[in-house]
Write a structure and sequence with these properties.
The protein has about 250 residues and is mainly alpha-helical. It has one domain. The chain is built from nine helices and six strands. The strands form three sheets. It has a two-stranded parallel sheet. The protein has a two-stranded antiparallel ribbon with strand order 2-3. The radius of gyration is 21 Å and the shape is globular. The two termini are about 40 Å apart.
Length: about 250
């Protein structure tokens, strides 16, 4: 089951600082099977590109860490068959606007806000049931699961709205990881400043480039690009648009 409050106490074993020509054994503990569809990590198949070799596939582990993005990477076969042209950054693949899993998560969140916790749990479990299907696990060349994938459904009713929202919000994090939803979820829930500053306090112990970084109240919206401001300039030099506060 998810560990929304203590997950940082159990880091996934990684190859930070380990050269690709040095021995490394991947994490042998229980892992959500969606981890290896979201990020690439050493010793695990990286789509159809082969085993992820670790450090040699990361530009700089000092700031980038030991994992690689995966959900926004195309398959090697797509390049070989002409479906993707990496030089021109073009693809014949349709862009996925929304996934059914996200529809279920939106429905679950709505049911929680309406007080229908059991219906919400049903929607969340539908997603977890799909993720638990071994047919969808990342597999080694011999057909065995690439890691010790373990995921279960919520068997007991949630104790109340707060518990239900905690479960729902963490499920969005697990299911939609690397899909560009997280920041906007945090802003929508009104918890961006708290969550991101806790993240920075933890991550700065590993990434020196984050030293001094902090998330401020005004960061919940982006700045208006200067060229867009300039494009609204009136003949008298005043601007139609104004910059968002804080920028």
């Amino acid at each position: 089951m998810p560990l929304p409050d203590s997950y940082n106490q159990f880091e996934v074993k990684n190859d930070q600082g380990v050269e690709s020509n040095q021995p490394f054994t991947p994490d042998a503990g229980n892992l959500d099977p969606r981890l290896d569809w979201s990020v690439g990590r050493r010793g695990i198949p990286y789509l159809d590109w082969g085993m992820h070799p670790g450090k040699s596939w990361v530009r700089d582990q000092n700031y980038a860490g030991s994992f690689s993005p995966k959900k926004n990477v195309y398959y090697k076969v797509d390049e070989m068959t002409g479906l993707v042209d990496p030089d021109r950054r073009t693809s014949a693949n349709n862009f996925r606007i929304i996934r059914f899993a996200e529809v279920l998560l939106m429905a679950a969140e709505t049911e929680i806000e309406l007080g229908n916790l059991e219906k919400a749990r049903e929607y969340v479990n539908q997603i977890r049931r799909r993720a638990a299907n071994p047919d969808g696990f990342v597999k080694l060349p011999d057909g065995k699961p690439a890691a010790n994938y373990v995921i279960a459904e919520y068997k007991s009713p949630w104790s109340g709205k707060d518990a239900a929202l905690t479960a729902l919000r963490f499920e969005r994090r697990l299911e939609l990881g690397m899909e560009g939803q997280r920041f906007f979820d945090l802003v929508r829930w009104g918890i961006a400043k708290d969550v991101l500053n806790r993240y920075l306090a933890y991550e700065v112990t590993k990434r020196s480039n984050l030293r001094g970084a902090t998330f401020k109240d005004f960061n919940v919206v982006f700045p208006v690009p200067q060229r867009q401001l300039d494009a609204t300039k009136r003949p008298d030099g005043t601007l139609t648009l104004s910059q968002n506060p804080g920028y």
